[in-house]
Amino acid sequence: MKVTFILPAIGRKKGEKYLKSWLMEPLTIAVMNTLLPEDVEREFYDDRIESINYDTDTDLVLITVETYTAKRAYHIAKEFRSRGKKVVLGGYHVTLMPDEAAGHCDAIMINNCGDNMRELIGDLKDGCLKERYAGTPCIDYKMADRSIYADKQKKYLPVSLVETGRGCYHNCEFCSIAKYYGSRYIHREVKDIIAEMKACRHKLFFLVDDSIFSDKAFARELFIEIKKLKVTWTTQITLDIARDDETLKLMRDSGCSMVLIGFESINQDNLKQMNKEWTQRLGERDDLIERIHAAGISIYASFVFGFDEDNEESFRRTLEFTRKHEFFVIAFNHLLTFPNTDIYNGFKEEGRLICDKWWLQEGYTFGTISFVPRQVTAEELRALCRKYKKKFFKFGSIIKRGIVCFKRTKNPLINFAYWFINILFHFEVDKRIGIPVGENLDGEPVSG
Ligand code: B12
Ligand code: SF4
User: Fold this and answer.
1) What is the tens place of the pLDDT at every residue in 402-437?
2) In the prediction, which pLDDT does 90 show?
3) b vs e for 408-440, b when ≥16 Cβ sit within 10 Å of the residue's Cβ?
């Protein structure tokens, strides 16, 4: 029995390479690989960096689907099915839109994989594949098996992704994670995480977690163990970490030099609209940021624009805010109406969706606004995101912040990462906008 894994790409501008900053190792595939029964032969095509051989001799094609890759995933599924191959789809988008996905394959899996992967393979061997497999919000593996992409490692960014936990106690209106995990948090055993980190090839880690401070006792135990490894790492966290000086110090001492925090908006009414006003209750935001910086940890600050109170003034004020705190790096993204999230359903009811299924729409490009904002037009919102990103990633700003970064943390790896990421993002502002979703992938130049 042979299984073929596919990671679909978002899309590519004609003649251009895939966006470099998206090219991280595909942990999803490594985890699924580890969950397959030992006697199954396996292969993997990473659509972002290589051509897919649709004529490969295989018994089962497993495709992971995110909302941005859904159109491409369905196309790939069609190609394989037209050649008589069985196709199973799974991942975030499939969990959010099971009925849609089911129309494009032989079976779907919703939620996460665990024992149900063995069940699926068993059913296929017995010729009785079911149409739906329902997983649970679980993390059912000891160590992700990266051997499946060992030959492609050089094409990925030099950072190892290791999963620590999933989900989050909060319930922000626009968030796929909140929908996927129903405001729960689950985590792996600390000893498994440490064993996996020891087996990874890079000294720089991205600990995959939606909110690593969700379980304080777990976080503290983990940080104490990571410290022994003498590595540098980053993760996603909420601002409440700043209220706990002791854990913050543990985190820094364990090698955490940068954290990604979703601020989303600096406007209180917007935060209320997105069900994230709890960040305001934590205390004075400026003070919390300063505490994190004072601990020697830099911040990747993420903002989302397009909520009802947003207009050009919000961009101006947010840019000022980012300059005041000299963040390591920022994201100024437009609001994304991911399917089946509360914001998606709300906009749909209000008749504010420009296109119901933007992810499948013919001609849809990355950066296109799929809803009608309140105070600016969709086109203005798109242009404002670009304009203010450009301002943040000007070379003058990069140099100024680079000096601050060096003063905050002397870690050479994180300083190198600073210049690499900021210069990359400087050039990628325009490269991202207009990427045709699901297009120019078959037969195009593929090297990453
Ligand atoms: C690391 C990461 C990235 C990395 C890239 C990782 C990579 N592979 O190259 C970076 C930072 C570059 C990135 C970029 C983006 N990301 Co991202 N990312 C993540 C993150 C934090 C971890 C992904 C991961 O490795 N998870 C661990 C694996 C093991 O879990 P998994 O993928 O869910 O897989 C399990 C199940 O879903 C299931 N499963 C999955 N696929 C399949 C397939 C089959 C057949 C079966 C049976 C089962 C199955 O089994 C797996 C094991 O249990 C997730 C959030 C999260 N916690 O997962 C967001 C997330 C996936 N990203 C998201 C988004 C939106 C993006 C961007 C569009 C952001 C942007 N505006 O630029 C880009 C798109 C990049 C792209 N697709 O090319 C969203 C997707 C939402 C959605 N509805 O699709 C998520 C969920 C974050 C969020 N809060 O909403 N991302
Ligand atoms: S805090 Fe972050 S991960 Fe948690 S629900 Fe809100 S946006 Fe999602």
Assistant:
1) 999 999 988 899 999 999 999 999 999 999 999 999
2) 97
3) bbebebbbebbeebbebbbebbebbbebbbbbb
Burial of 198: CB neighbours in 10 Å, binned 0-12, 13-18, 19+: exposed
Question: Quick one: CA dihedral 436, 439, 443, 446, positive or negative?
Answer: positive
Which residue from 12, 28, 85 has its CB within 8 A of the most atoms of ligand 1, so it is best to mutate?
28
3-class SS string, 434-447: CCECCCCCCCCCCC
Which stretches does DSSP call E strand in 91-146? 107-110, 132-134
Beta bridge partners, 264, equal: 303
Look up residue 293 and give its amino acid: H
176 lines ligand 1 (CB under 6 A): yes
- Residue closest via CA to ligand 2's atom 1 equals 170
Find out whether the beta carbon of 112 lies less than 6 Å from any atom of ligand 1: yes
Residue ranges with strand state E in 74-203: 86-90, 107-110, 132-134, 160-163, 165-167, 185-187
- Rg of the chain in Å (alpha carbons): 22
Structural domains of the chain sorted by starting position, each given as residue range(s) with its CATH number in brackets: 2-134 (3.40.50.2300), 158-432 (3.20.20.70)
List the residue whose alpha carbon is closest to atom 9 of ligand 1: 24
Q: What is the dihedral of CA 31, 33, 39, 45, to 10 degrees?
A: 170
- Ligand 1 centre to CA of 66 (Å) is 7
Residue among 92, 166, 170 whose CB has most ligand 2 atoms within 8 A, to mutate: 170
Distance 9 CA to ligand 2 centre (A): 25
Of the pLDDT bands very low, low, confident and very high (cuts 50, 70, 90), residue 86 is: very high
Quote the CA–CA distance of 369 and 366 in Å, as a whole number.
9
3-state secondary structure 48-87: CCCCCCCCCCCCEEEEECCHHHHHHHHHHHHHHHHCCCEE
Contact status, residue 133 vs residue 120, Cβ threshold 8 Å: yes
Q: What's the pTM? A: 0.96
> By C-alpha distance, which of 305, 359, 299 is closest to 330?
299
d(CA 333, CA 355): 19
DSSP 8-state assignment for residue 136: B
Beta strand extents in 311-393 (DSSP E only): 329-334
Residue 352 burial by Cβ neighbours in a 10 Å radius (0-12, 13-18, 19+): middle
Place of tokens 């749909």: 348
- For ligand 1, whether the C-beta of 139 sits within 6 Å is no
Find tokens 């985890």 and name the residue: 31
